[in-house]
Amino acid sequence: MKLLIATLLLMQPVFTGPEIFPLDEFASRRARVLEVVGDALVVIQGTTERPGEQPLRQNNQFFYLTGIVEPRAIATIDGRTKKTTVYLQPDDERRRRQIEQMYGAGLRPGTEAARETGVDAVLPRDAFAQAIAAADGRTIYTTFRPEVLGSASSSDPAALARATRDDPWDGRSSREEAFVAKLRAAAPRSTISDLDPILDRMRSIKSPREIQIIREATKLAGDGIIAAMRAARPGMAEYELQASAEYVFKKGGAYGPSYFALIATGPNTIYSHYHKNTARLKDGELVQFDYAPDYKYYSSDVTRVFPANGRFTARQREFYAIYLKLYQALMTSIRVHETASQIVKDALVKMDAVMSSFAFTDPKIRAAAQRFVESYRSRPNVASLGHSVGMEVHDVGGPAATLEPGMIFTIEPAMTIPEEHVGIRLEDMILITASGYENISAFVPIEVDEIEKTMRR
User: Fold this and answer.
1) Stated pTM of the model
2) CATH number of the domain that 389 lies in?
3) pLDDT of residue 6
């Protein structure tokens, strides 16, 4: 009994759509999908039950269109009738107890569930077969890409699915491939088309409410970094700093992490995605801290660098200072309606000015800075400045031709001294606005004096 109570206390609440967005936001998204697919039928399946004692998290594409968090739910959006129907598992007493014990009060087929979720009808899952049979001959859109359930980006489960399918000792198809095959068998005269590109384009521009949630996620990420800065001491393990941030994330209501903690000290800073997190902080070494929460189905991504003992050495100040100036040259060149290549071209003018005026004392740092600048000069037709952030930390939507209002992305260029196995990489959350951009992670200390002051507190 004590174990059950402890488990329930540690269980993270399962957020559903109406707790995060007004229902008309989901309805608006579904209407925008129908503007693209015309009179086709859209079919999308939710995730399954968890394989253990874990809180349920809906997959991103299903949540984006419905906000419904129920295992094995299926939704149809009909281009002819303009109606959305959700199909749920049978409403028997055993399932009801299981759902309520693991995830809280669940939905039951019927008019009440339709009212609560803002869809037109909620039917038993058995009725879905009849709906597909009736649609035979119409174009059917569904998601082809493997689902994302948090702590991942779409490329990750897609790569796993390919590796599994190509493994001669495995060979399984993905759940989505199996679903497409079932649809083709049930509606043999229908064309089955990929829904993912349509949703990806929509997700690339964030709504005002999405932006607010990402601000909240970024506030948690930044506060977690600040907590780690204040906790840092030589002799601590990297994972102890992770614990400081995770406390902030959970205290703030996060479901979990957006990605594994990237906490690197000393020679581990050369790696952009080092995540073993077992090394000890050493006096005189730098710590690179990159960690953020999965909060209400949205991510953040912020990185800061700070000294393990709270004080930058003179050489570390020089290394960090030139990197920060070059980083800011890139950031301050960002403009709305502009291409990434033009922004880099303008930033290079600023970088060259920084390089000519900076008082270098260390030839290795000068060489590292020169390589940093030349890495941009050698790519005149760069497609993007970093990566999008949204429901996934490397969000869908891909590089866009120009930066448009509502896009959110990070820049995270690294500057390294390979022979010493050290590097510096900062990262900020950039929101493109109608007049330019906003750095929504600007509150996280980034200047040397500001970092040292924060660590003294």
Assistant:
1) 0.95
2) 3.90.230.10
3) 37
